[in-house]
Amino acid sequence: QVQLVESGGGLVQPGGSLRLSCEASGSAFSIYAMGWFRQTPGKQRELVATITSGGSADYADSVKGRFTISRDDAKNTVYLQMNSLKPEDTAVYYCNVRYYSSTYYSTVVTWGQGIQVTVSS
Fold first, then answer.
1. From first to last of its 121 residues, what are the pLDDT tens digits of the chain?
2. How are beta strands 10-12 and 29-39 bridged, if at all?
3. Which of 75, 47, 40, 42 is nearest to 62 (CA)?
């Protein structure tokens, strides 16, 4: 199985920056794609950004031009660089990984525990 460890959240002022990291660890797996979702109270979880093993990235319209997603294949880690942060970016951010498990001979989707990002007004 694969476990995810998220880091880099916290409190910043509007216009500030944060970098989120998510490292996948385990055995007998190959990652297809990694990404970030976010959720605020009373709202459904929404896509922020994803990146495939081939390096193709997609972003929510609300973060285009401000956020950048990237991968470090040697570390099985995905990063989300968040610049020009706005109060509406405040949310719990969840790492998401889609991978192939050679143990179970199937594709698996797993989630991190979530990390708080707060942008003060």
1. 899 999 999 999 999 999 999 999 999 999 999 999 999 988 999 999 999 988 999 999 999 999 999 999 999 999 999 999 999 999 999 999 999 999 999 999 999 999 999 999 8
2. unpaired
3. 47
The encoded tokens of residue 95 equal 């790492």
**Interatomic CA distance for residues 61 and 31, integer angstroms:** 25
Length of the chain: 121
Structure tokens, 79: 């990063």
Residue 43's beta-bridge partner residues?
Answer: none
Q: Looking at this protein, which amino acid is placed at residue 35? A: G
